[in-house]
Specification:
Length: 357
């Protein structure tokens, strides 16, 4: 299995610093009208608590799902060789089970490195993993934070009382409850920002597609989870702090930032494993570039698909990742041959391990 999904508090604090910089315009909005008084310390503590609970919940959810379904997902990945469509569906299912495209791709890299899955067969699975990440954004957009205590209680009861195989599912359920609780805490913490014109103006200035994309990529690099980034973006949108173009740009940036883990996982592995990670990075860069060029069309679809901004962003996430994967799916054999010539077989470093540890 890959390294633990547990995240220290430092990334949460760094992410808070990214979202809430000491911006001079925040204290005095344009036009000279003073913003309503606000306790910035309470805001910082509330955001820190919400982000920390959210990231802890993501870690528990991932740990529980990997323990409960990790071997099943690994076997599933190992049999994803019967055509591009099956590979796509396999990657989608495995990522849904593991709640992490990075974990899916790291496991896949291990299988490719060991020769258990061919490089060409791995590419549709990688595309499917991008679709699988959209499940969590739909959950975040449902606005079911009020049910977080129920999920926490049920998860803890299962963890304590259920037979061994079900205890891991209990941990995952408790993790999901903590994720929703953290999002609810974060949402309550940022509500006062609605009355700070300087803050809302700065956040909405990120609707410049390139700027918003860079913020989304940087945030994802800090917290090492595109799903977590989408959760925060959807929460900010639900509070009216960012508009649809800003949320879409940040969503696109998260697709770039999520590639860091998979690139690190290729250190010392075979060229085939390196090619798999480079395909993931290249596909995400090309698709995000296309998304930036077509962001008005994406925003138009999102606005048509739902009434509130949070759900619009989640729906756009599904459409963007699904359409991109399907457009590329049947080109994967040609792409695999091209990458074989670009980076021929050979060792990239130390001897390969049998699978992702």
């Amino acid at each position: 299995m890959p390294r633990s999904a547990s995240r220290p508090l430092l990334p949460a604090l760094l992410a808070l610093a990214l979202l809430l910089p000491a911006w001079p315009g925040w204290a005095q909005p344009a036009g000279g009208q003073a913003a309503p008084p606000m306790d910035w310390f309470d805001l910082a503590m509330g955001c820190t608590a919400g982000l920390a609970l959210f990231l802890l919940g993501v870690a528990l959810l991932a740990d529980g799902l990997r323990a409960a379904a990790g071997d099943r997902a690994k076997r599933l990945l190992g049999h994803a060789t019967d055509g591009p469509l099956r590979g796509l569906l396999t990657g989608t299912a495995a990522t849904t089970l593991l709640d992490s495209s990075s974990v899916t791709i790291i496991l896949l890299i291990g299988l490719v490195d060991a020769g258990l899955v061919g490089f060409a067969q791995a590419l549709p699975v990688i595309l499917g993993s991008n679709i699988g990440t959209t499940v969590s954004s739909q959950i975040f957009a449902l606005g079911i934070e009020d049910f977080a205590p129920i999920l926490l209680a049920l998860g803890l009861l299962a963890r304590a009382l259920a037979p061994e195989p079900w205890r891991h599912w209990g941990l995952a359920l408790a993790g999901l409850g903590l994720v929703l609780f953290g999002l609810g805490t974060l949402g309550e913490a940022v509500k006062p920002l609605q009355d700070q014109p300087g803050v809302t103006e700065w956040l909405r200035s990120s609707d410049a597609p390139l700027r918003g994309m860079l913020i989304g990529a940087a945030f994802t690099l800090l917290i090492q989870s595109s799903s977590a980034t989408l959760g925060v973006v959807i929460t900010l949108a639900s509070q009216g702090l960012i508009d649809l173009p800003t949320g879409l740009a940040m969503m696109l940036g998260a697709e770039i930032g999520t590639c860091s883990d998979t690139l690190l996982a290729t250190l010392g592995r075979s060229r085939a494993a390196v090619r798999a990670a480079l395909f993931h990075l290249g596909f995400n860069i090309v698709s995000v570039a296309a998304g930036l060029l077509l962001i008005d069309a994406l925003a138009g679809f999102a606005a048509w698909s739902a009434g509130d901004t949070a759900q619009q962003i989640a729906n756009a996430h599904v459409a963007f990742n699904t359409v991109g994967a399907l457009l590329c799916l049947y080109a994967t054999p040609a792409l695999a041959r091209w990458m074989d010539r670009l980076l021929p077989d050979g060792r990239a470093g130390r001897p390969a391990t049998a699978a992702a540890e």
